[in-house]
Amino acid sequence: MNYWVKGVPTEVLHNKQFIDGSWVSDDGDRFVRDSPAHGVPVSTIQIGRSDHVENAITAARSSFEKGAWSKVPAADRAELLRKAASKIADRREELAYWETLETGKPYQQSLNEVDGSVELWNYAAGQAQTIHGETFDNFGDGSLGFVLREPVGVVGLITPWNFPLFILSERLPFILASGNSVVVKPSEFTSTTTITMAEILNDLGMPNGVLNVVTGFGDPVGSTLLEHEDVDMVSFTGSTRVGQIAMKAAAKNIKKLSLELGGKNPVVVLPDADLDKAADGIVYGICFNAGQCCVSGSRLIVHESIKDALIEKIVALLKNVRVGDPFEPGVHMGPIVNSQQMNRILDLIASGSNQGGKLVHGGNRTGSELGHFVEPTVFCNVEEDMWIAKEEIFGPVLSVFTFESEDEAIHLANATEFGLSATVWTQGLDTGFKFMRKIKAGRVWVNTTITGGPEMPIGGYKQSGLGRETGLVGAIEYTETKSAIVDLGDRKSWV
Ligand code: NAD
After folding, report:
1. What is the pLDDT of residue 27?
2. Residue 103 domain boundaries
3. Alpha carbon distance 278, 24 (integer Å)
4. Among 226, 242, 259, which is best to mutate for testing ligand 1, by the most ligand atoms less than 8 A from CB?
5. How far is the CA of 159 from the centre of ligand 1 (A)?
């Protein structure tokens, strides 16, 4: 099947939930997902209820306590995760197709994200056999110390809509690698590829109850996972607003939490930067995924002396950015995820002009009336206290600030409640390292942007989150550490 020309499906896909190894669908309410590019319904999900979440948590707990997966040799877990990677590759075009239909991202980008997901599952498979404890043979002859790494238990995984399969793949195989059982709650807007992953894992023989997918809204599905005393850990990726709710809810049983939240990420351009490369990176950084990326470079902090030259190059490149139907080859930017988010972006753009920003490019809704397309937009003369300067816009809107000294640039870069990522453009090695050290962010790119690999941990400083995903650290995140001391000699009496 040629997915490039397939366009919207002729029949709406009705998804089921996956609980305790069974496909669950009753005549409860359904949520209909419209393609944000085409404005027509493409899929539905069951709106999960509290009883669905309860059943999923019970199944996950029971599978965990039975050792159905947690006690399986790591080599066997690794083998299943590797087979899953290979099945993702086999279903590459189908997964990319649904990703594009539900998110609106260009189909080629979806294909790239499926490929990236294959890498993540393969890497995490290796972690199943890499995670290990330590021994301390330094207490003298009479004692030996062990540090054990155990699975946490039942993990709730709550994901957002902007990279449904990729973000799932940055977390789920890492959670499974060390033997946890999971209840996944995908975003209501983009559930299909998560459900396909349940199908893949089930077909490969994942024991019942180890992986459950409950679809629906934040309340009650996500909130029950956060509040439930039988869930040991929640991995939440989404907005800082809901992240704050998550922290409060998790306090009930002092649940372990991993939070990957929002960003308002600086891009610093020093006077010695290669301006052509920087301009291209900046345009990519704000247009990729239509700016709906937690690590979008949304605050350009440029040296006063090169500002005009850089803006000219950025605007020239933006004129060549094609916004439109994500199934059309060559389209760089698809729509915004839904009309509510599009209207919020347009409100933020209006506030940028009203609060004294100088609009130098874009600023409007564009493309087909049926889709939620917004032009890439650039504001100059942005001040620190303006709404567009502070708020995570989650759209293709770039705010430009200027600086004269490096200290001022570092101050501006850190002048945000977030600390997710930062980009620096400079040809000076010393300057690059200086900014890398001084910027408070979980990820820093020098002379490149929005790139990485499964080996590199991701996460945020400040209100961008807690904990890290991917890499060895990401795998360890889903384990508990137990210290054990074994006495080997004669016990010296205490009494
Ligand atoms: P969101 O916070 O609205 O929703 C995220 C998930 O939480 C969804 O599944 C949603 O249904 C669920 N949810 C909503 N209310 C809930 C509640 N009260 N309790 C439990 N769950 C609830 O975020 P979004 O709009 O889907 O995604 C965009 C946000 O995600 C942006 O802020 C972006 O920066 C952030 N994000 C961060 C990262 C990262 O790695 N740091 C990655 C991607 C997205």
Report:
1. 86
2. 3-261+464-481
3. 50
4. 242
5. 6
